[in-house]
Design goal:
- This protein has about 325 residues and is of the alpha+beta class.
- It contains ten helices and 13 strands.
- Strands 7-6-9-4-3-11-12-13-10 form a nine-stranded antiparallel beta sheet.
- Helix 1 packs antiparallel against helix 2, helix 3 (about 160-175) packs across helix 4 (about 185-190) and helix 4 (about 185-190) packs across helix 5 (about 195-205).
- The chain is globular, with a radius of gyration of 20 Å.
- It starts with a strand and ends in an 18-residue tail after the last strand.
Length: about 325
């Protein structure tokens, strides 16, 4: 690890960032994400948080000594990951790069065809180990969304087949009524204008989850930001998010994140600072950063500049085995 005095070099930091999509991509993309790690943010036993999003992820691992990657070229591989219910302890640590997009599965039905050309694009544009590719890889990801995903989404909206209309209706029912506010599947189906069996079949096909489980994960995901950065009490946040009481919120965060609300909030608020320029040189990209988690791997008695940034604010980060990125990252067989 390279250090200048007590400061950790940016290239030595384990980094996880989430960025807002470009304005014209916001109707169907929740956010972009990028992870560079050496097993610190993604160590064995740390939790993948539950997530209501589907993911298209790219992974690039460093070459092993027994490989013939003499020229430093390392292949990117693309994967599709479904939403997750409940936290998932990691079985292996991850070393390398991971990046991609998260999107609501009811907005965009992506299959293998959506991954065509993605690995090839990144292997051509970002295939050299040892580069510092935060700006270029986000640029490449934006370009892939623009030229591959956006036309698919716009074409689906233009056709508006019955399946797409029912998907929009069901998603609207969950959002308008508040996820999992005691509504039965029959009530949700009535709001969506379909029979309960159709609603259950559609949700399982698109998310891998039953409607109530998907709604519960939506509610958990929506409560995370308010728990971390909101000014209200945990009781008020629980009520606004649709929980019966604060105890219900506490139980749900334990189930889906492995942390209590108070612990999660305390870790997120240790120190507020600014500036993500060490990782994103382009000002427009810096303005799109909504979350930044860094871990230098320093021990408790070493001075460190670990940080968390959310919606343009940067917060001192948690020590190893503590707070990690709220959405977690896809395991992709790590």
């Amino acid at each position: 690890m390279r250090r200048g005095g007590s400061k950790t070099e940016a290239t030595d930091l384990a980094v996880y960032a989430e960025l807002q999509p470009m304005d014209r991509h916001r109707p169907f993309i929740a956010h972009l994400f990028v992870l560079r790690d050496r097993g610190r943010l993604t160590g064995i036993g740390r939790n993948l948080f539950a997530s209501p999003f589907s993911e298209i992820a790219l992974v690039r691992r460093p070459p092993r000594d027994d490989n013939n990657d003499i020229d430093g070229t390392v292949a990117w591989k693309a994967f599709h990951l479904p939403p997750r219910f409940g936290r998932q302890p990691r079985q292996r640590s991850f070393h390398g790069w991971m990046l991609g997009i998260r999107y609501r599965p009811l907005d965009l039905d992506t299959g293998d065809a959506a991954l065509v050309g993605l690995s090839e694009l990144f292997n051509a544009r970002c295939g050299r180990e040892g580069e510092d590719p935060f700006d270029p890889i986000i640029g490449a990801l934006d370009a892939w969304i623009e030229h591959h995903l956006s036309p698919r989404f716009n074409a689906a909206r233009a056709r508006r087949p019955p399946v797409a209309e029912s998907a929009a209706a069901m998603d609207g029912a969950l959002s308008a009524m508040g996820p999992d506010r005691g509504m039965s599947v029959a009530s949700l189906a009535a709001v969506a204008g379909v029979v309960p069996r159709t609603l259950q079949r559609h949700f399982r096909k698109r998310t891998g989850l039953a409607p109530k489980r998907y709604a519960a994960v939506q509610r958990f995901n929506g409560a995370l930001h308010q728990v971390a950065f909101g000014g209200g009490s945990l009781a008020d946040i629980a009520s606004e998010a649709g929980y019966c009481d604060q105890a219900h919120l506490t139980t749900d965060l334990g189930r889906h994140a492995g942390l209590s609300p108070g612990r999660f909030r305390a870790l997120a608020r240790q120190q507020v600072v600014r500036d993500a320029v060490r990782f994103f040189k382009d000002a427009d990209l810096r303005n799109r950063v909504r979350l930044l988690v860094c871990d230098s791997g320093a021990t408790d008695d070493e001075e460190t500049d670990d940080e968390i940034q959310s919606e343009g604010r940067k917060l001192r980060g948690a020590r190893p085995n503590e707070l990690r990125a709220p959405d977690g990252h896809g395991d992709v067989g790590h």
